[in-house]
Amino acid sequence: MGQLPHHDYLFDLADRTAGLLESECSSWRPCTAEKRIGGLLDFTDPRVEPLPVIVVPDLHARSFFISNLLNYQLPLDFTETKKPLTVLEALEKDKVRVICVGDLLHSELRCRDRWLGAQEEFLQDVFNGPNMMQEMVESLTLLSKVMELKCAFPANFHILKGNHENIMNVRSPGNFPFRKFANEGEMVRVFMENEYGDDVTMVIFCFENALPLVASLPNAVISHAEPIIPFTREQIINGMNNDQVITGLTWTENNAAEEGSVLAMLQELTVYKQGRIPRYIAGHRPVKGMYLLRQQGNFVQIHNPEKQHIALIYKDKNFDPDSHIVDIEK
Questions:
Q1: 262 contacts 231 by C-beta, under 8 angstroms
Q2: What are phi and psi of 271, to 5 degrees?
């Protein structure tokens, strides 16, 4: 087992990343009328250089997923380079964008037995027993890697808010206390406050609440979950503290979305071009195999928690889930 990140390192990194996000108003992250960060990453703006995009589904404490991602060698026609590049090399050369759909913490079903063991420890007032310690080493290692990548490549590495981005386990706009196999949300909150104190917990919470909700590309839209209803561009930009918008983009259950919500948002947020067939891509609910199609094939769900799948969105190709979703596991 590895070690927990040091208090000062984690505080400084989270503070730096939160500050970066909170000042991210730019041509690709439009501000609200009050000059605050908006909830949309807009890569359809003609001022933004078009780049191919890698969509990374729910990570759930899998730092090995990020390591394999960075070492994955991309197809030549994806980066349009003379020699193959890894994802890290492509980021360094400004040849790709990476968009993670959120859910950074909580190992979920992969470590269900560990969660149950941690809950037994928790019920005996042991907040940092071996089960919980191993869980938090994995979660905070992943969180640290993702924040470091955001700081290293602020214009090209992005994280969207998922329903697990709630380290304080509060009920607030778009956030709900979380429990699934155990009392995970409360157990993480208590662990953080005991191991790190309020300062680190709060600055990570600020990072989580500065994350955007949706990314729009000329040929795709990306969010954590299927949109419960259609949201307009303005609603998303102004939705950072709107319960309906946040919940409707991060918590949607299968078969709960309004029919047509995806198509309406594709029409609102993508760029029309003859022959272009845009797709809406998200994670959130687990799928078997490579993907699941919903909403007459307009919505592609890609989160298989047992695999390390990514979606490759080419600049000038329609997204084909059969050939553009790849497994990067070594």
A1: no
A2: -110, 125
Q: Is 16 exposed, middle or buried (0-12, 13-18, 19+ CB in 10 A)?
A: middle
In whole angstroms, give the CA distance from residue 41 to residue 45: 10
Are the C-beta atoms of 55 and 97 separated by less than 8 Å? no
Which is it for the CA torsion 118, 123, 127, 130, positive or negative?
negative
Give, for all 330 residues of the chain, the pLDDT tens digit: 689 999 999 999 999 999 999 999 888 999 998 999 999 999 998 889 999 999 999 999 999 999 999 999 999 999 999 999 999 999 999 999 999 999 999 998 888 999 999 999 999 999 999 999 999 999 999 999 999 999 999 999 999 999 999 999 999 999 999 988 889 999 999 999 999 999 999 999 999 999 999 999 999 999 999 999 999 999 999 999 999 999 999 999 999 999 999 999 999 999 988 888 999 999 999 999 999 999 999 999 999 999 999 999 999 999 999 999 999 996
Question: Is 46 exposed, middle or buried, given 0-12, 13-18 or 19+ CB atoms closer than 10 A?
Answer: exposed
